[in-house]
Specification:
Elements (H helix, E strand, L loop, with lengths): L2 H19 L1 H35 L3 H6 L3 H43 L5 H7 L1 H14 L1 H28 L1 H49 L1 H7 L2 H53 L5 H14 L1 H27 L8 E3 L8 E8 L9 E8 L4 E5 L6 H9 L6 E6 L2 E4 L10 H5 L8 H11 L2 H6 L17 H14 L4 E5 L7 H15 L3 E6 L2 H4 L4 E6 L2 E7 L3 H9 L4
Parallel strand pairs: 1-5, 4-8, 4-9, 6-7, 7-8
Antiparallel strand pairs: 2-3, 2-5, 9-10
Helix pairs in contact: 1-4, 1-12, 2-4, 2-7, 2-11, 4-6, 4-7, 6-12, 7-8, 7-11, 7-12, 8-10, 8-12, 10-11, 10-12, 15-17, 17-18
């Protein structure tokens, strides 16, 4: 596939969800924009005709008394009011529609990061993906507000000018229509082509400037210790210089584009002036009609000039399209996790499963088959790197299997890390269930053993946490994660070393609460600690990505394997 074919394919992938989100609002925005331009052209043209006709009628007493001033003046007032209303409606509808579309695209893009393998990319390159979610989505605003809407308005202006002049002389109207379309859109395409390279350089420059600024601020201690602070500052200055160079190129191009549209408008006006002069001299039209045609032609180039800003941003918009298209493409058919309906024979069923980490060609799981009954508690044990966490990630849908089949009940994964956000304690809890009221939140905190600590905080549930849960101790953070787990109404819990790095007393308390609150849920625990594996009814021993043994409670082998694990 050629580069141009790939570019048009990417544009279709972005335009499809873009236009499908609020199609009626987007269409009405374009209609109102065209109505505003047409009303403005008609207002100026009718005003010119009225002034000229009134002046000529006043030359003779007979015509002065018979000339109707009421209908034209009423039309002028109507067009003035209509233009004001359509302009207000256009701004309201177009901006509301574009903001709604961009918000929907952000949600779609963010949900795309929940696909298998996407979490790894998000963790590895958070700043780059943040730029995709913010600046690249914002760049699509120009696609509608500065390209599609002005293009529709400009086409309407060209048609109106061609029709008005066509009533005077069909040839003049047709030539004017073709001239406006060819020159107006031709300049847009030329400007967009010339602006593509500096616009792309500017987009890259903004990314580089932001990234290096963040690196300088967040990593200043490491940079000073390594003696790289001056080098980082120089890199930041170089990024700023490249951004300034790109801005200068775009500003020069904008100035040239303004001059080009000014020349095109002047040539249009001169050509129409000569044409209507000839028509007046031949007696084909009168002076008022000549004024009407001249003023309509004068305003016909203005909507094309409005496309200039969109043409300058087209390079940045095109870059955003190329970046976002893969994430907005429909999901390809690929193996995943089949959801088990309630009442099924197995809560988890794996058959000949193989899987690898993102970007790795070496399988982390090889031909794994496992069945877990509803309500059963199973512990995955083995040395670090045996594939325990990978197996949980596959069941949770975070890693796509390479081969085999996976079916499981709806699950919640509690990882080794406690993911908390810079927000209130209440909103951190509501990530598990946005509809949970305060009584449910307090109940979950009570079950997790954190209610007393939260009541001791002056703000209670409104206590603001810092980034990563700053303000809570390690034990409190883990209990908060446990409370969030309890709020999640799923029948399967996937626990990846839930008490790792906690002291023995807190760890035993957390495990007791887990065992109590689990109730009839199915538990699958990845661990190398004896205290965690003791919750299980069955031990599944893993080595080098394979299951090597399954041991049930009560057997000597179970007790031997349990005692072989790391003690509390």
């Amino acid at each position: 596939m050629s580069s141009s074919q790939g570019g048009w394919r990417d544009l279709r992938l972005v335009l499809r969800p873009f236009l499908a989100t609020q199609p009626r609002a987007l269409l009405w925005g374009g209609v109102l924009a065209a109505a505003t331009v047409l009303a403005g052209m008609a207002l100026l043209g009718l005003s010119g005709w009225f002034i000229t006709a009134t002046a000529l009628a006043g030359l003779h007493a007979a015509t002065a008394f018979t000339f109707d001033v009421f209908m034209p003046s009423a039309g002028i007032r109507l067009l003035a009011l209509g233009r004001t209303a359509s302009r207000y409606g256009e701004r309201l509808v177009t901006h509301d529609a574009s903001f709604g579309v961009l918000a929907a695209l952000r949600v779609r893009l963010f949900r795309g990061w929940a696909r298998p393998g996407a979490a790894h990319q998000l963790a590895m390159r958070p700043s780059r993906l943040l730029f995709r979610l913010t600046s690249d989505i914002d760049a699509l605003e120009s696609l509608y507000l500065r390209l599609l809407v002005p293009a529709a308005a400009a086409l309407g202006a060209a048609l109106l000018a061609g029709v008005v002049l066509g009533f005077m002389h069909i040839g003049v109207g047709l030539v004017l229509l073709l001239w406006l379309v060819a020159v107006g859109w031709g300049l847009v395409l030329f400007i967009a082509r010339r602006a593509q390279r500096p616009a792309v350089r500017r987009a890259h420059g903004i990314e580089a400037l932001r990234a290096r600024t963040v690196d300088l601020v967040a990593g200043q201690t490491d940079l000073v210790m390594a003696g790289r602070a001056d080098a980082q500052r120089e890199a930041l200055m170089n990024a700023d210089a490249r951004l300034a160079k790109a801005d200068l190129a775009l500003n020069r191009l904008e100035t040239s584009a303004g001059a080009a549209y000014g020349v095109a408008g002047t040539l249009t006006l001169v050509g129409v002036l000569l044409a209507v002069g000839v028509l007046v001299g031949e007696g084909a039209i009168g002076a008022p009609a000549a004024a009407l045609g001249l003023l309509v032609a004068l305003t016909a180039t203005e909507p094309f000039a409005a496309l200039r800003r969109g043409a300058l941003d087209a390079g940045r918009t095109w870059l955003a399209v190329r970046r976002l298209a893969p994430r907005l493409a429909p999901d390809e058919a690929r193996p995943g996790v089949a959801v088990v309906e309630p009442g099924a024979a197995w809560a988890v069923s794996l058959a000949h499963l193989s899987a690898a980490h993102f970007g790795s060609g070496i399988p982390a799981l090889n031909d794994v088959s496992l069945a877990i009954a509803p309500g059963e508690r199973v512990a995955l044990v083995g040395a670090s790197g045996a594939g325990k966490s990978t197996l949980l990630a596959v069941i949770a849908g975070e890693i796509a299997p390479l081969a085999g089949s996976v079916s499981a009940e709806p699950a919640c994964l509690l990882t080794q890390r406690t993911e908390l956000f810079q927000d209130s304690l209440r909103d951190n809890l509501r990530l598990a269930d946005p509809a949970a009221d305060d009584s449910r939140l307090w109940s979950a905190l009570q079950s997790a053993g954190l209610a007393g600590d939260v009541r001791a905080f002056p703000a209670g549930l409104d206590t603001a946490l810092g980034e990563g849960g700053l303000g809570l101790s390690g034990g409190q953070s883990r209990r908060l994660a446990l409370a969030r787990l309890l709020l999640r109404p799923v029948p399967l819990w996937l626990l990846d070393e839930p008490t790792e790095a906690l002291d023995a007393a807190i760890a035993h308390d957390v495990l007791q609460r887990l065992a109590k609150e689990a109730g009839p849920r199915t538990l699958l625990i990845a661990t190398h600690l004896r205290r965690e594996a003791a919750l299980a009814d069955r031990l599944v021993c893993m080595r080098q990505g394979r299951i090597v043994a399954e041991l049930r409670r009560g057997s000597p082998a179970f007790e031997a394997a349990l005692n072989a694990l790391r003690p509390d």
